[in-house]
Description:
This protein has helices at 5-22, 32-35, 38-54, 63-83, 91-107, 112-118. By secondary structure, it is mainly alpha-helical.
Amino acid sequence: MAERPTTVWREGIAEEAGELAAGTLDPECGCMAELFPEDLLTETEVVLDAFEQDLVGLAAMDDTEVLGVVERVVLALNAVDEAHHGSAYETDERELLCDYIDQSLIEHGVDVIALTSRHGLGRYQITDRWRKW
């Protein structure tokens, strides 16, 4: 199953906190909790919860419906990013989110390569039409 980016971020926060507590990381180098505040994580998880609900029955949907699922999750993530002054998701975070969306679609029976090809998109451009983050 595709790993949620928020899981990766929470694990990074916990690992960094352990290193700080053990004294193996200079406090000036600790940034995970600042990069990923709890409200950002929670808001992102709410969006991903809704996305996962939308994935039910996805393999039986036509292209328009599948793209609608992608559009809804991307627009919801745009809103989270905007609520955090456009700095919630940097390059690494964007890549994790896009990979999660892609892998989740595949796991639910969508041939992403064929879908994107039918719509004149490159293999990894499925979110680009709506994505602002």
